[in-house]
Amino acid sequence: MAKVVSERGRGTGMPTRGAHHRRVALALQGGGALGAYQAGVYESLHRAGYAIDWVSGVSIGAINAAIIAGNAPHRRLDRLARFWQLVSSNPAWIEPPVPDALRDWFAEYSSALTVVAGRPGFFEPRVPPPWLLPPRYAAVTSYYDTAPLRATLEELIDFDRINRGEVRISVGAVEVETGNYLYFANYPTGRSDTVEVRFGPEHVMASGALPPGFPPVEIGGRWYWDGGIVSNTPLNHLLAERPRTGTLAFQVDLFSARGPRPANLADVMERQKDISYSSRTREMTKVPAKMHDLRCAVGEVLAMLPRSRQDHPAVRRLRKLTASCVYDIVHLIYRSKYDESHSKDYEFSLASMETRWTAGREDARTALARPDWLKPPVPGESVRVHDPLRDAQAALPQAAIGRES
């Protein structure tokens, strides 16, 4: 655990939210084994004193979110570490130190081991394997059984705590028969895309039930798959919440939409996966940002109307759509390491997990050293998007830049 969770910190002594923030949110994308990066990001946020009011996730992001929301603050890092060490362990053999020259080979071996044997505390292959029969005749709907994950979630998460609502949580899933995308939440909501539930392991498992690897999860007579099938990031869900209030949102993505041109077939497969699952966070942010800006502008215009027109039915309808708060969105995006390939999202070796966790911790530290979101907004600002990692990289001498921005 020493390599994953560093020594106890005492915080930075800096404020962790601006006067214009009423909520601090954490949005966690799906990405399988890459989710250790999110745990590292949370470690730095926690040690810096950021109190998360709302955490939302999809797939592996939903698991990390549930561990955070389902534990007291002083236990969260330990529980995150226990989960990631469990699923990254290999009871069959002791993982040896791997020289850098062999890391790419070892990563492929580790990925193949996951395919054959599953992961402890997460999923295990079905016996007999479904691929021994043509898919149409195999009486199963997945290659793996996720019963081990239920036991792990029940051990590491206090679902009573989640259901007390001390921290808001919402996780994305897709209904199999209708294709409708929705969020399960532990708080009252009037939104058609969000269902208030009494949280249990099944809601977290539904968000991570990626077919055909994992089976659908039944909840209330309906069956659900991984929310990443439709949208792999919960950021837009956070921005659409009502009532609208000043929010500092940390968006932690596991796939980068930007990347170099592939040089070989392995690069092509990795790049295709990055683009497919990245959700193109920066571009997707523009639409809700423009909508929020429009709501704020409409609110300002309505305030200019004479008092005699304030009760007009059209004005009352428009007023329900307005906003007068500021959203600060902080992007943190994992960049693949040189020894990773298209199988990186199911490459669960202990060495890779620790590397990703450390990357998240260090990236978050870099970001927190540039807290522009604490600056008071100027009149007319409604959405401020921060990319501290790219800004920090741009500040480096050109010769020192070694990865894409």
Number of H- or I-type helical stretches = 13
Molecular shape = globular
Alpha-carbon Rg, integer:
22 Å
Uncertain runs: 6-10, 399-405
Structural commentary:
By secondary structure, the protein is of the alpha/beta class. It is built from 13 helices and 12 strands. The chain has helices spanning 36-47, 60-69, 76-87, 103-117, 147-156, 159-164, 201-207, 235-239, 265-278, 281-304, 313-319, 350-368, 388-394; strands at 23-28, 54-58, 124-125, 144-145, 168-175, 181-185, 194-196, 217-219, 222-226, 247-253, 327-333, 383-386. Strands 1, 2, 5, 6, 7, 8, 9, 10, 11 and 12 form a 10-stranded mixed sheet that branches. Strands 3-4 form a two-stranded antiparallel ribbon. Helix 12 (350-368) links the parallel strand 11 and strand 12. Helix 1 (36-47) packs antiparallel against helix 3 and helix 1 runs parallel beside helix 12. The longest helix is centred in the last third of the chain and has 24 residues, at 281-304. The two termini are 31 Å apart. Mean pLDDT is 86; it is low at 6-10 and 399-405.
In a few lines, what is going on in this structure?
37% of the residues lie in helices and 14% in strands. The chain has helices at 36-47, 60-69, 76-87, 103-117, 147-156, 159-164, 201-207, 235-239, 265-278, 281-304, 313-319, 350-368, 388-394, and strands at residues 23-28, 54-58, 124-125, 144-145, 168-175, 181-185, 194-196, 217-219, 222-226, 247-253, 327-333, 383-386.
